[in-house]
Design a protein that fits this description.
With about 300 residues, the protein is α+β, with helices and mostly antiparallel strands. It folds into 3 domains: about 70 residues, no CATH class; about 60 residues; about 120 residues, L,D-transpeptidase catalytic domain-like. Helices cover about 30% and strands about 20% of the residues. The strands form 2 sheets. The chain has a 5-stranded mixed beta sheet, sandwiched between helices. It has a 4-stranded mixed beta sheet with strand order 5-6-7-8, with helices on one face. It starts with a helix and ends in a 6-residue tail after the last strand. Keywords: Cell shape, Cell wall biogenesis/degradation, Peptidoglycan synthesis, Signal, Transferase. It holds the Pfam family YkuD.
């Protein structure tokens, strides 16, 4: 009887021990291999959630919990804790062009001309785009209606900047009073009053091949704030005629499309057409010099 009782107790002890080992497999474990760190949280939740099987070996669980508590007191991380480090701050190199403002193939050229012209902000003539260069180029593009005004130093921006920078206002023979000056070679216009430039050089588009704007000295002989063109059936805002059917007026198309031109008239951007309208009157002197390339 004693041996039978002892055998029964031995079987029970083995069964409890084996069952307890199986239950411990559901405890969150730390991967010590270095290949994955802590187990994913989902694994822990699946094993310890309400749907997990009961763990009968409470003494072993309590012992493990005490060990974990002791480890945490020593500064070791909890097996179930996940340490999240904030992302390292990123630094944008100062030499990198600002977002949305790409560097164009004519960067140095545009910088040089804008520095010469002045009035558009600080630019550094080094051929490298910067935030200051970008803003200056954008202001220049908006002023002369270069589209899109995204700060990129492309061919149109370079061409306009060069023509304006190369315009010599002293070449215009201006007398007393107001004189409108047109440089056909550089396709620019400016105004002088009593020997002083009151409208700095701005862009224009004159007569195309077969309709070249004639050079010479004239006077405005007719004005109308909005003139209708009979042959071309289009309104001509801020019309100021100075010879034959040719005069100043606001452009009706994109001014920087150099594949086309006017039928002899001096096309102007809206703000420039208004400014010349405010300065001009019947009798205002007009001095036209040079010749448009290709005419």
């Amino acid at each position: 009887m004693v041996s039978a009782h002892f055998g029964t107790r031995l079987v029970a002890l083995v069964a409890v021990t084996l069952f307890g080992v199986g239950a411990c497999a559901f405890d969150p474990q730390t991967d010590q291999s270095g290949a994955g760190g802590l187990r994913p949280a989902g694994d822990v939740e699946d094993a310890t959630g309400a749907s997990a099987p009961p763990t009968p070996d409470r003494k072993k669980d309590d012992s493990d919990q005490e060990k974990n508590d002791s480890d945490r007191k020593k500064g070791e991380p909890s097996p179930t804790a996940t340490t999240t480090r904030p992302p390292a701050p990123t630094r944008t190199p100062t030499s990198k062009p600002p977002s949305g403002c790409p560097q164009g193939e004519r960067q140095r050229e545009v910088e040089r001309h804008l520095a010469q012209l002045g009035g558009f902000g600080r630019v550094t003539v080094d051929g490298r785009q910067s935030a200051a260069d970008c803003e200056a180029i954008k202001r220049f593009q908006r002023r002369y209606d270069i589209r899109p005004a995204h700060g990129r130093a492309g061919p149109t921006t370079a061409d306009v900047a060069r023509r304006l920078a190369e315009t010599d206002t002293d070449r215009c023979r201006a007398g007393s009073g107001t004189t409108f000056c047109v440089d056909l070679t550089r396709q620019t216009v400016w105004a002088i009053r009593d020997g002083r430039v009151v409208v700095p050089p701005t862009v224009t588009r004159t007569g195309m091949s077969g309709y070249a704007t004639p050079s010479g000295t004239y006077r405005i002989n007719f004005r109308n704030v909005k003139e209708w063109s009979d042959p071309y059936e289009v309104w001509l805002p801020y019309w100021q005629r100075f010879v034959g059917g040719i005069g100043f007026h606001q452009t009706t198309t994109y001014l920087h499309d150099k594949s086309i031109g006017s039928h002899g008239c001096v096309n102007l951007l809206p703000s420039d057409a208004r400014r010349l309208w405010e300065l001009g009157k019947v009798g205002t002197r007009v001095h036209v010099i040079g010749r448009r390339p290709g005419t």
